[in-house]
Recover the amino acids of this structure.
């Protein structure tokens, strides 16, 4: 990989890199753009768009193998301490494997042949989150005029909501696997017989969203075909697993351990989601820079971010600037931009130290907002 800095830029772009960018003191920060930063991002990352198939396959398969090994070792553990250790291994492995669903929504499938099918068979279907629940939804979150508005399926102004919404937002994720299993094992087959229920399932229960007002449109063309086979396969798996537990083919203890680990995976992802943005927009259309500053990077040296924000998610703000760059190139993109952009650049204002500080900031914002409403 080439070592790039401001010297590799076109003369016009290079001249702007050291421009001081005014702090966000404008009357309406959501209308301000840091054009110097945006030009630098375009110039410095244009060679980082190619996905590395070998890295995708090796990372995903290793993560899934670790996760499922941890699951089976947890089921067979002879002591509580050993079970907890193996369970932690299972959660982290499956969480990283499942996080590749984010990459599926951004990479060209031809660049990593067979990866989408393999991900669904190994992670998506077994964990009740087939890729159609994210594809066609997540791209709306990146739409220029949708981000942070009522039309964004992945946004809520959490920093401006009641303080009790934050723990509720996190804790409800523990019920995710049960809700998803019910959706596929019970609602899916019933909805084929009851048209109004089918409409409800398609609109309300077919996306990994956090905005309760979002309604999904029915898929068309190739997306519809993919949706149907993935939904059917997940329904067969969920219904078969339920029957196997009821008939005793699958021991109840093993099933509960599986659900517990899946719940922990969703809990960890929900905590990560809680800190992916600052959640401070009140529904107004935002500039690219404002969207970037409402998002979060947690770059090195903190090592733990790679565990709770894996597969490039620790560079979530940067990802909003360059969504087409694969996860394995984001660290290099961040290194180049950090070195090239002046300290006054907006780019550095989206970098945070770690999870505790982000959670505390969000909690303070929520309590402050509640106090202002009460006055």
């Amino acid at each position: 990989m080439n070592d790039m800095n401001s010297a590799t830029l076109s003369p016009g772009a290079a001249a702007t890199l050291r421009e001081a960018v005014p702090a966000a003191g404008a009357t309406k920060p959501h209308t301000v753009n840091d054009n110097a930063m945006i030009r630098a991002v375009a110039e410095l990352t244009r060679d980082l768009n190619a996905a590395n198939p070998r890295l995708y396959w090796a990372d995903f398969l290793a993560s899934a193998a670790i996760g499922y090994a941890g699951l089976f070792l947890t089921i067979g553990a002879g002591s509580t301490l050993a079970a907890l250790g193996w369970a932690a291994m299972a959660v982290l492995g499956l969480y990283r494997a499942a996080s590749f669903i984010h990459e599926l929504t951004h990479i060209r499938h031809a660049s990593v042949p067979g990866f989408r099918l393999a991900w669904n068979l190994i992670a998506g279907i077994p964990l009740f989150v087939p890729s159609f629940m994210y594809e066609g939804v997540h791209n709306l979150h990146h739409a220029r005029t949708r981000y942070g508005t009522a039309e964004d399926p992945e946004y809520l102004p959490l920093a401006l909501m009641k303080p009790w919404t934050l723990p509720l937002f996190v804790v409800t994720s523990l019920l995710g696997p049960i809700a998803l299993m019910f959706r596929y094992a019970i609602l899916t087959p019933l909805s084929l017989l009851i048209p109004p229920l089918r409409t409800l399932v398609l609109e309300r229960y077919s996306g990994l969203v956090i905005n309760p007002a979002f309604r999904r449109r029915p898929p068309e063309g190739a997306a519809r075909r993919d949706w149907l086979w993935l939904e059917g396969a997940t329904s067969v798996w969920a219904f078969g697993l339920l029957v196997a537990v009821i008939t005793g083919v699958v021991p109840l203890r093993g099933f509960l351990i599986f659900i517990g680990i899946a719940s922990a995976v969703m809990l960890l992802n929900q905590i990560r989601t809680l800190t992916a943005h600052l959640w401070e927009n009140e529904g107004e259309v935002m500039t690219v820079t404002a969207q970037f500053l409402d998002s979060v990077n947690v770059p090195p040296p903190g090592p733990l971010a790679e565990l709770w924000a894996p597969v490039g998610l620790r560079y979530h703000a940067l990802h909003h600037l360059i969504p087409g760059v694969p996860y394995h190139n984001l660290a290099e993109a961040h290194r180049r931009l950090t070195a090239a952009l002046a300290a006054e650049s907006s780019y550095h204002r989206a970098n945070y130290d770690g999870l505790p500080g982000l959670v505390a900031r969000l909690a303070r914002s929520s309590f402050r907002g509640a106090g202002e409403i009460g006055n």
Notes: DSSP finds 17 helices and no strands in the chain. Residues 50-124 form one domain. Confidence is low (pLDDT under 50) at residues 1-29. The two ends are 56 Å apart (CA to CA).
